[in-house]
Amino acid sequence: MPERKDFGDALVKAALAPIQAANAHFGEGAIGDGIAALSKADLLAALRQGIEKAAVVFKFRTVDVEALLPWDALLPALDRLEAAQIAALRVVQQHAAATGSPLSGPVRGSAPDTRKHTGASALFKVAKRFAADPRICSPLEGLATEVSGWETLVSQCGDRLESSPLHARYARRKILVRVALVVVVLGTFSVAGRSAYKKKQIDDARARVDVALRAEDPCATERLAPGDITLATPEQVTAEKSRLEACVSGRARAKYVAACETLAKNFDAGKLSPDDLAIAKEAAPRLERAQKRELGVDDLLVTPKDMPCQDSPSKDRFFGTYAAAAASSTNVWTEATRVSDDLRDALRGKDHATKPYRDELTRRAEPAAAKAIVTGKPEDMELGQKLCDFAASFGIERGKKCTGLASVLAKKR
User: Can you tell me where the transmembrane regions are (predicted)?
Assistant: First the structure.
């Protein structure tokens, strides 16, 4: 007969599998792959697999095991770990972009004992290798700290299962099954016994439905057995349908938000995929032109609100990259005379002080001003002033010809 320790070990071993996989990557020197293996989705999936395996030990439903776990501590811990993982991945990507090669190098050490808190040690070793660079070391240490906290919580979950009354219930159930078999053989079932059993069956089914409906994750209702829903109250059936709809909606929203995040990263990296263009929708052609540094004059009139994914957390990540593309699209500045205020403000920043667009504006303005001074024609004066003012609006210092034209126009007034 299974022991209490088997109950807790089944959950802990499965829940910490992603950390073991991450440590294997670290041992091979694949630091980026190791950090990627510590995603919230993988850790939550592993925890749920651990719940299922623990439930199998005593042949209980997963909802019985889920009800024992401290979800009010587990879910916030996963959110913190996810934030730390994203920060660490960003450091890895920035390092790769700056150096042309990924963070790498083997980290020697054994795989973590699934009941001891050693799984974060490899990450701390990785961070220690970059102690001289706080920009790399700090995010890695932050992730290691959150991983260590997650290991502690998982181990506590194992302890909680081992000390739960489920083991005693399992033993009692084994006895009841044997007694029931004897009763079946003897044919002594009573009407009262059947009625009590039916009532208990209904009560247990409704209790399991209640656990699923109270769970923070609306998708918990997907794991309910059809028989439990059959025995549920009308109110529970209505609530279950609502939770299933929320589950579908939540997954669709999460998928969209993730796709927008990927689009923002790939646009910044200059590597738009067909999936990225599909998410960008009507903004896709403009992003492609920006990526190729082939923007047209109408593209200079856009604002941040013209960027894709305006209903996602990634909405503010596009315009800065777009402005950089505009600053490097040399051809468009040979004929541009108007830009949006938002783009002008972005290009006036110090990050674009040496970009090609400034040379092109100066190259256009100074000859036009010189021609206006020589000919004195109204149309030449108007064009020269327009081009000089346009260049100056970006913070470009007026040249001698533009300054001279301004003096000529001032005297005529």
Answer: 175-193
